[in-house]
Amino acid sequence: SHRRGPRADMVPEIAAAVGFVSGLLRTRGCVSEQQLQVFSGALREALTEHYKHHWFPEKPSKGSGYRCIRINQRMDPLVSRAAGHIGLGLPQLYRLLPRELTLWVDPYEVSYRIGEDGSICVLYEAAKPPSSYGGMLTCKNQMMLGRASPSKNYIMTVSS
């Protein structure tokens, strides 16, 4: 793929986040592989929908709080909704998942922390494009880029 500039899709970041949460459920052994697949699919769709208008590869930290998945005194609503698809209620989720979990899903980086003063671990990291790139991308350039090589992403964004 010779597309220059920031990658617009969220696929690897969301896959990393979903894989992490379903991995936590898997380690307890109470959830079948089939249930995990349903859960993963449901969570992937929920996150994709939730992040759709809150994803800024050129400003990766923008909207970070909105994309953050949290379990503390309350269960993250996106996680509990996905768990509902496989019949897991809140009591089970609280038993299966860490008491305190924060998962940051940002463009180019997914990281998590277990416990309020735990250390932050990076799950997924991609090379960010050089930041000087943002300066060169005027509206005009962007339109020319789009016309010259309409990438699949570009077409999808326009048609949705």
Explain what this protein looks like in three dimensions.
Pfam families: BTG. One of its GO terms (biological process) is negative regulation of cell population proliferation. One of its GO terms (cellular component) is nucleus. It comes from Urocynchramus pylzowi. Belongs to the BTG family. The protein has 160 residues and is α+β, with helices and mostly antiparallel strands. The chain has one domain: Alpha-Beta Complex (Actin, Chain A, domain 4), CATH 3.90.640.90. It contains 8 helices and 4 strands. A 4-stranded antiparallel sheet has the order 1-2-3-4. Strand 3 and strand 4 form a beta hairpin. The longest helix has 19 residues. The chain is globular. The two termini are 23 Å apart.
